[in-house]
Amino acid sequence: MSIPTVRRDERGIPTLYVNDRPFFCRAGEIHNSSASDLSFAGEKLWPALRGLNMNCVIAPVYWELIEETEGAYDFSLVDGLIRQAREEQMKLVFLWFGLWKNAESMYVPGWMKLDSETYFRAEKVNGEKLNTISPLCAAAVEKDRMAFTALMRHIRELDAQENTVITIQVENEIGLLGTDRDYSRAAQESFSSPVPDVIAAVSGKSGTWTEVYGEDAGERFMAWAFACAVETIAASGKAEYDLPCYANAWLRQSPWYPGSYPSGGPVTEVQPIWRAAAPSLFAFGPDVYVPYCADVMDAYASEQNPLFIPEIRKDAVAASYALYAFGEKNAICFSPFGIEDLALDPSQLDRPPMELMAALNIDPSAFDITGSRECLAAVYDLLQQLEPLYLQYRGTDHLKVCVRHGEYDYSAFLRFRSYDLAVSYGPRVTAKPLGCAYVIELNDNRFLLAGMNCSISFHAKPGTGHKVDVLRLEEGTLQSGSWNRGRVLNGDEKMPIRFGDMPSVVMIELFRF
After folding, report:
1. Which of 38, 49, 208, 454 sits at a 20 to 30 Å CA gap from 318?
2. For residues 445 and 488, what is the distance between their CA atoms, to the nearest angstrom?
3. Measured between alpha carbons, how far is 492 from 502 in angstroms, rounded to an integer?
4. d(Cα 328, Cα 301) in Å, to the nearest integer?
5. Distance (Å, rounded) from C-alpha 348 to C-alpha 357?
6. Environment class of residue 415 by beta-carbon count within 10 Å: exposed (0-12), middle (13-18) or buried (19+)?
7. 300 φ, ψ to 5°?
């Protein structure tokens, strides 16, 4: 059995292969502590995920529980999670909660927390120490490297035949909050030195960090420091078991200055530095709780960076974004955070305090789960049934997907070979999905249409003098890419084609006259 890998398919699209077949992670990330107790996971977690049509769970692995005693590794939690995932017929993406989690060092073992001389903290310019071990602390990076390497060796020994674990996230939301960079003594010495040759090649300039990057020097320096540390850790682990590894990013967002978001994390502006310093990573994935999720996907999906979304909002709009992520952006993974909450009654949900969400620039509606379970489960099922057609048409002009991008985005206009297609989005409504459409041109006159909260109309190409009408319109369902016809629609039910709050599919054949 081969190791899961990310490689380009025959059309050049970066794709995750598991057991030598393309695998698209219809995933959900669980809460931070849900994987820390196997009894809790068995009794509370896994039952909550059933019925969501997921094929993958994103779950933390905690350094503080693996190496409670220095040098002695306990992988019983890892083993138990893998066994449970197999029983549930799920794949796993592990999150390595090592040196850094959410810009702090909260998951390092207790013995490391208590030795702040050996494992020194990053500092602000005034000497205030942060609760973040400096990436310039070689002793700490070395301990993380050893633990992560032991973890990867253990996963290989346990799972190389079954491939339950398919990718690994190295650390979580790396960076420094409250300062643009580390001002510790080690950091000051490095910052005042000439930039490394690889950075000179990336930037096209030589000199000190300030001479090369000016006012952006602090964030660029931290990107280099964190990326180098992550590369040391990831490369060593991959040498034991070459699973695909990635890093995730807390978004750069208002008020936009480094330190208001984690300075040095792999946001789009510093990804060239990360890519140069950490070649062992295949992607930099955004954590998306803002209202403009589609804009973030557009920014993070690129030729150099396959779209991997380990965390995204879990309100009903997530279902629409899932269609867009996979269909239009060739995503490898889409994963609402706190996925087990979707089993709760919305009134039971324990949301973060408003002041915390305001401080972190999180849209409060991102945690409204009203209607989310039904919408996401239906879309995940639709994506599964679409997969044979998706593999046939993705990367071609015959597949186009659109979603409402913002408050003033009312429509989309999609061009195909013989017809143009207009999509009108319905208004954004609380606890409802956004307008979105998924269109496959099967031949010149035949289209498969799926969508939510939108209407679709077809138009002849300009200048042809033709009109367009419906030859046949069918309701129906998909089963593993095959069309199962339902009602045949005609009369005043044939135009325009409308999609409601839950995803549905129609087959349409057109003619021109």
Report:
1. 38
2. 17
3. 22
4. 10
5. 18
6. exposed
7. -90, -15
Pairing of strands 454-460, 419-425: antiparallel
Length of the chain: 513
Q: What is the pTM of this model?
A: 0.95
386 contacts 393 by C-beta, under 8 angstroms: no
